[in-house]
Amino acid sequence: MTWFSSLSVRGYRRLADLHLPLRSLNVLIGANGIGKSSVLDVLHLLGKSANKRLTATVLEAGGLKSIFTADGETSELTVAVARPATDTAGFTYELTLGEFGVFQGMEIRRERLTQVVPGTSEPLELLVKTDNGQVHYGEEGFPSEPERGFDRSESALSQSSPFSMASAFRHALGDISAIYHSLDISPRAPVRSPQILSPVSLPGPNAEFLVASLFNMRETAQDRFEAIEDSLRASFPDFERLSFQTVAAGQLGLVWKDSRFTRPFYANELSEGTLRFLWLATLLQSPDLPHVTLIDEPEVSLHPELLRLLADLMREASERTQLIVATHSDRLVRFLTPSDLVVCDQNPDGGGMTVQRADALDLDEWLQDYTLDQLWSRGIIGGRA
Q: Is 172 helix (H, G, I), strand (E, B) or coil?
């Protein structure tokens, strides 16, 4: 599923001036520190801004100075996403942040959401915030001012009318609510502990809802639960089934049955790689994936043979969510196609990260003699330094 057709960023860390075409599956490859994770972070920032959490998210990152491109000249951060045109309309949203005052606080300098309707020459402005701070909402030619109590430290999009087309776009953008990256597997981590049964469908960015999401999937989307068990059997030949044990009122523990042993295993006894693969498989099989799903370094702690199954899970999930992944794993790349890959390199002129879709590199002849991961490791497609 391609929810956004492009992402443009100016002034965010290594993303000095980036334009990234997006597809349903986007796997970013490149050297450490090049800016791959910044792509996930800036999309996450947009999602938080749509949920009226922009100021808090910027402060948690250390303030604007910490997220500006470190060139000594950046004074603004601009992020824009485009929703591809369908039979009815396409959308473009742009947000610009800057510093103000002696304490270098944050202000929203400009904001704009436009809709392009097929057959019309001019885009319809659904939301505009200008340099002078004025905010206008527009629906079919009827502009309006923000309602009383408008918070100028948060995006105008996050405060749009619940009945407007701007609101529909806001909910889609706000669906980008989490980045799935490192997983705490310490002895008292949520993934190793019994969990409260709740009506959730996603495992959570730290697997804090893994047990509840699996239980709910077994009860309401049995085909997806069985697909997870099938993936586990393909990954761990002695695995038999997952079950759940009530350990207290409203709390369930995860039970793993292995054919080699008479007693089952519990989550606190499973290896890091097993837990991480189960967490990712649960996420990717969820029937309620968000519009956009962000995953950073999914290969961590996984045996190389598990990456083939993970690639299959990612490809299937990309039919239901727009998947954006950052990886350093050449083994994972082996099981992908050039159309899946985004090659990230340093701009030779020192202008931050540049990107190119791998299928634009004319690799057909190379792929007759080499696998895709070999082309990457040999530096033929870039993304190495």
A: helix
DSSP 8-state class, residue 301: T
Strand partners, 83: 91
Q: Is residue 225 part of a domain?
A: yes
Dihedral sign from CA coordinates of 314, 87, 50, 57: positive
Alpha carbon 193 to its chain's center: 26
- Helices 306-317, 272-285: inter-axial angle, 10-degree rounding: 20
Domain tally, the chain: 2
Same domain, 121 and 49: yes
| Domain end call among 241, 272, 289 | 289
CA-based max dimension of the chain = 71
Distance CA 39, CA 294 (A): 9
- 49 close to 158: Cβ distance less than 8 angstroms: yes
* C-alpha span between 10 and 78 (Å, rounded): 5
Please, what is the Cα angle at 183 between 187 and 279, to 5 degrees?
100
Residue matched to tokens 């990256």 = 181
Strand partners, 245: 253
Judge whether 370 lies within some domain: no
User: 361 lies in a domain?
Assistant: no
Residue 254 lies in a domain: yes
Do 200 and 164 lie in a common domain? no
Residues 288-327: tens digit of each pLDDT: 999 999 999 999 999 998 999 999 999 999 999 999 999 9
Torsion, CA 41, CA 43, CA 47, CA 49, rounded to 10: 80
Q: Is the dihedral of CA 11, 12, 16, 20 positive or negative?
A: negative
> Residue 207 is part of which domain span?
180-289
| Structure confidence by residue, pLDDT tens digits, 125-181 | 888 988 777 888 876 544 556 666 788 889 999 987 776 777 888 988 999 978 999
Distance CA 329, CA 373 (A): 9
* Global pTM value: 0.93
